[in-house]
Specification:
Largest sheet: 6 strands, mixed
Shape: globular
Strand order of the largest sheet: 1-2-3-4-6-5
Distance between the termini: 14 Å
Radius of gyration: 16 Å
Helix content: 25-40%
Number of strands: 6
Strand content: 15-25%
Length: 177
Amino acid sequence: MYTVHKDFNFLKNLLTEFLSQPDLIERFQIMKQTKISGWETWFQIELAIFLQQHENVAEWERESRHSLDKRKKDYRNNVSIDFYIRQKYAQESIPLEIKQNEVARTCIKNMIDDIEKFRSIRRSSLRTGREPWCLGIHNKVTEKTIRDYLIDYELNYLENCLWIHEIPDTEYMVTLF
């Protein structure tokens, strides 16, 4: 359990710093004003650049391919994990999936689907024994609304490992679990 809380705090602190960058906030404002959608890949690239330069990140990997355990799912042979992030001095990397959707409910549902996707990966194909995390970027709603969605979708999460954070000076927020 200690590792889960340690990973959560590391990701939360890292993402708080990332999301408070003035240039990033300005881009979020422009995307909202001009109604640009489908920017999940852009967000991942910005995060990759940030991770590359961060002093507490030893290494990171993006779009790591894995084989699925056919006994659990049979719709595909392979899936990709958005990020593996290894904290300095840590032995293993933390898997992180990222979802973006304007509609908070849809974003949360897609995040839960990604956790299920991770659980369908063949164990021998995984790079880490760490628990997967999901970060969702969506329009602002109340914290209660997010918690209600998690109850609706019957997600079992650790109460102190849920982060709901408004991105400063934007109409967006993030949810991490």
